[in-house]
Design brief:
The structure is a single chain. The longest helix has 15 residues. The chain is an alpha+beta fold. It is built from 14 helices and five strands. α11 packs across α13.
Length: 277
Amino acid sequence: MSTLANFSQHLSNVLPSIQSKHFAPALASLLRSLVEADDLTFILYLGHQAPKIDYFMQPDERESKLQLFQQGAFLVDPFYLAATKSEKKGFFTLKELAPEGFKNSEYYRNWYRLSGLQDECGYLIDIANGFINISLGHTANVAKLNKSQRQSLRDIEPAIVTLCQQHYGSPDSNVALPSANKADETLRLQLQTALDSFGRTVLTDRECQVINMLMHGHSTKSIAELLCISTETVKLHRKKSYAKLDINSQSELFYLFIDSLMSVKDYKSGDTLSNYL
C-alpha cells in the first residue's frame, strides 16, 4: 500500500471519531502508520489548569513518570516553553527547541532519561482555551526517526491542526473549559509564578536570571550568549548563588525549588524561599 493510500485509510477512521472518545486513539494510529514511534502522548494545556494527559500509549510503564511531569516537570519542558514563552506553533524536533546543555539539565536526568525517551518530536497546536502538544517519542527499542519520516510529519501538519481544532475546538471558538477541582484550576499559573519568582528574596536580579536559566537546561556558554556576558561572569554568578542558597550543584538547586514549593501551604505568589531558608 502506498503512503498516500495508507494515510487516506487511517484518515477515514479519524474523521468520524471527531468529538468522541475514539478521536485520540484514531489520530495516534494514523501517526504511527507513518512513523515508528513507541511513545506517543497527547498533552492538553487549557487555561491555567495543570496539563492533562488525553492519550498515552504505555499507561503501566509511564504513569508515574507522567504524574511527575504534570506536577511540575513540564515547566522546563522544551516543547512547553516553546509554546508559552516563544509562542511557537507547528511541528518541531527536540533538537530544534532544546537549549544547549539540555542533556546536562536536571529535567533531562530526572524525568526525560528516566522515562526511557531517546528522542522526541511533535506538534504544538492552538485549540480552544489553550494548546495541545502531540509528542512522538522513541525509546531504545526503536530506530530514531530519519529525515524522510520527520518531513512526512511536517507535510501533514495542516491536516493534523485541522483535525485537532475540529475535535478540541478552534482558538477563536467560545468553548467552556472542562470542569476541574478548585486546586487544579490555577495550578499551572501558580507553578509558573513560583518558578519565575524563585530566589528573588535572596539573590540579585542577575543571579536569579542565571539560576533560572540553569534550571531550564541552558549551559554556561548558552547563558553567556543570551545575557551578553562572559562565561566567567556566568560562573561567578552561579558560584555566588550557590553559596547564598547553601547548595553545591544543579541537582541540589532543582530539589531546593521543589522542596521550598512543597513547604508552602496554599501557595499564591512570591518567592517560595522567603520562609524556607
